[in-house]
Please model this.
Amino acid sequence: MELKEFIDKLFEEAKNNGFNEYEVYYVDRESLSINVYKEEVEKYSLTTSYGLSFRGKINGKIGYSYTEILDEDAIKMLVKNSKESALTIENEDIQFIYEGDKEYVEVSSYYEALENLPADKLIDLALSMEKESKALDNRVASFGGCGIGYSKSIYGIINSKGLNLKNKSNLLSAYVVPIIKEGENMHDGMGYVTAKSLEDVNPKKIAEDGINEAVSRIGGKSIPSGKYKTIINNEAMVSLLSTFAGVFSGDAAQKGLSLLKGKEGEIIASNKVTLLDDPHLVDGLSSVPFDDEGVATKKKDIIHEGKLMTLLHNLKTAHKGNTKSTGNGFKSSYASPVGVSPTNFYIKKGSKSFDELLEEVGEGVLITEFAGLHSGANSITGDFSLAAKGFYIKDGKKDFPVEQITVASNFFDLLKNVVEVGTDLKFPMSSVGSPSIRVEGLSIAGK
Model:
């Protein structure tokens, strides 16, 4: 059954069963993933998925249901299951079917140059990354991975209040993880790119990035425990920011899962820190004109020069907090209820180059990688104790690689202890971004 016909019949069935408001959210996805190993295709995976969820309001409660098949049986099932779930809801949270906004910003998230990509060309590019890595350094003993992937999705919202929104996006990405053997030790590095066209994928450049990172780790050693002047580089800071992103959710705050509850308007970070959520960022991996409730998205400062300006909200949490939705009501999948998530979430770049940050530190530590983020970080309290790698800084320059160290601190304290923010804002295959930051007094456990 065609989508329009299906929705018309679904809405009629919902109306006949006592629903006074109703909505459909649908997603159509396609993804291609190619992995190579030892100059052969190891895995070739092409997947397509389609899903549709139904929300209906009856007796002031909203019930959910979903399907992957569009037929007459699915219509009856969706309405029946939604009605049953609505009538069994016991909490008093008020939920909404949204009538829409007057204007929606046009967002570029779909690239025509990525349409109809030839599979053989993608395979050639993936094989080339492996070949280039071996050609660049004869110490390459193996690979932690080498692949290229393409994905596209079309999604939309249609409801009984006249809302009818649709958006599409696509993305090409490629990566290689060469592993270098030096003596008895192995060192890996990663090169990657997210691209808007095939021309943006340069196998030699990607391989060079991976090789350079691996080589830079040769000869790593620990350092004495103590407090050090520290730079956390952009990619390491992204991993930390990603781990603690949930503390800025209004939903988490209302459930007592964030220490930022009721802190709007208070200083929670250094005046060097401005944290943004920008759904309209050019080439952002999470740029969208509307959220999954149909609310128009907007750019906003979450932290502005140290002050907490807002938490992120969907319609339900905004109503509960007596504020407006920030346009951050998103589903993790079509089958999930609406939650709260950031879009392009990043620390605003500062005025100092990376080299200037090194000079300012003089002697200290550069952190380039955190490990154990899932087990060593408490997203509620902000405490973390993480294995880390990086470099010792001496005379304002990188001196030698550092490993076998543990960094212990608190995310909220870290934000307050930022003394400078770099200009090297980066989104490493992620919708979370950060420049390198310089912090004072970070405790490092070493030898």
Notes: Residues 118-148+172-216 form a domain with the PmbA/TldD fold fold (CATH 3.30.2290.10). The mean pLDDT is 96. The CA atoms of residues 51 and 68 lie 5 Å apart.
